[in-house]
From TrEMBL:
<keyword id="KW-0408">Iron</keyword>
<dbReference type="InterPro" id="IPR042244">
    <property type="entry name" value="HypD_2_sf"/>
</dbReference>
<dbReference type="InterPro" id="IPR042243">
    <property type="entry name" value="HypD_1"/>
</dbReference>
<keyword id="KW-0479">Metal-binding</keyword>
<dbReference type="Pfam" id="PF01924">
    <property type="entry name" value="HypD"/>
</dbReference>
<dbReference type="InterPro" id="IPR002780">
    <property type="entry name" value="Hyd_form_HypD"/>
</dbReference>
<protein>
    <submittedName>
        <fullName>Hydrogenase expression/formation protein HypD</fullName>
    </submittedName>
</protein>
<comment type="similarity">
    <text>Belongs to the HypD family.</text>
</comment>
């Protein structure tokens, strides 16, 4: 392993022009891996890895968090991934609602939430559907299965977001990002060709990377090598294909259709989210429970998650980092989530 890292470092030195280079990683798992392996410290000082909007919990908009919390008070069972329960809303959190006696349950998979609904027909179970293309197919599967089996007490609050339009939002008005470390898990579903617009329209390349230290360093080498002639390439070939997982794509497309979506930090982005198709509308919690998101999308006071997610500041540049905001007492989602940049910087002492 050390030998491969040394080789990657030699290659980075070979292709390093000495100019300032900014590469954005757009996957929370990459952020964690980069911090864990200390890769920022390994790279020459002119090559900066900055974190982007790739943590699903972190990019969920504040009014979506508040709407999920207020749904818990309607007597339904909230089914969710673990990190989301600790994200502070403007007045409460799902964790606080659970402490007050609301039924908030953590599941590792949406399929477990559907099983729970089937085993408890007297409960209305609402799964909070956050996340990108990695998790969307399994949520689609639950909706399809509930439809086929005529399950009436399961629905999904669809807050899913998709990656390409968010990347475009980061570069559309000009950017100093010269390359993207593209997400490995998302791309296993979508394939790599969805990123071609970055080269075609913005002359910015990217590499779909794996998650080991050597994967990420070799991906950096590939980006540096192609800086003058940007390309979209796959380093993580053992998992990702150009065309992705076409069966999962078909499933997503059958259950969901494109919609506009609001992102923390990035605001409203056209066609960057999904909604449940009419055929499956009885499984759409937004319609079933007439969920209204608060109009105002007030960010948590003092929290700079929005700027962290856009790569404008590093977590340590937030005045609250490590002081008022720690993993035990998180102020914002980037410190809550196991894929959040602030949590990564805190955990690994960057
Ligand atoms: Fe928000 Fe805390 Fe990160 Fe600051 S350190 S941006 S308050 S999560």
């Amino acid at each position: 392993m050390q030998g491969i890292i040394n080789t990657a470092k030699e290659l980075i030195d070979r292709y390093n022009t000495g100019e300032s280079i900014k590469i954005m990683e757009v996957c929370g798992s990459h952020t964690m891996a980069i911090s864990k392996y200390g890769l920022r410290q390994i790279l020459p000082p002119n090559i900066k890895l900055i974190s982007g909007p790739g943590c699903p919990v972190c990019v969920t908009a504040q009014n979506e968090i508040d709407a999920s919390i207020s749904l818990a008070s309607q007597g339904v069972t909230i089914a969710t991934f673990g990190d989301l329960v600790r994200v502070p809303g403007n007045n409460s959190s799902l964790q606080e609602e659970r402490a007050k006696g609301r039924d908030v349950r953590v599941f590792y998979s949406p399929l477990d939430a559907l099983d729970y609904a089937m085993a408890n027909p007297s409960k209305e179970v609402v799964f909070i559907g956050i996340g990108f293309e990695t998790t969307i197919p399994s949520v689609a599967m639950t909706i399809k299965e509930a439809y086929t089996k005529k399950i009436k007490n399961y629905s999904v609050y669809c807050l899913h977001k998709t990656m390409p339009k968010a990347l475009e939002a980061l570069v559309v008005n000009g950017s100093d990002i010269q390359g993207f470390l593209l997400p490995g898990h998302v791309s296993a579903i979508t394939g790599s060709t969805i990123y071609n617009f970055l080269v075609d329209r913005y002359n910015i390349g990217g590499v779909v990377s794996g998650f080991e230290a050597t994967d990420i360093l070799m991906s950096v080498v590939m980006i540096l090598k192609n800086l003058k002639d940007p390309k979209i390439e796959i380093q993580y070939k053992r998992v990702v294909k150009d065309e992705g997982n076409t069966e999962a794509q078909r499933l997503m497309d059958e259950v969901f259709e494109e919609s506009d979506a609001e992102w923390r930090g990035l605001g409203m982005i056209e066609e960057s989210g999904l909604r449940i198709r009419d055929k499956y509308s009885e499984y759409d919690a937004e319609k079933k429970f007439k969920i209204k998101k608060p109009n105002s999308n007030t960010e948590i006071k003092g929290c700079r998650c929005g700027d962290v997610l856009k790569g404008i500041i590093t977590p340590k540049q937030c005045p609250l980092f490590g002081k008022a905001c720690t993993p035990l007492n998180p102020v914002g989602p980037c410190m809550v989530s196991s894929e959040g940049s602030c949590a990564a910087y805190y955990k690994y002492g960057e």
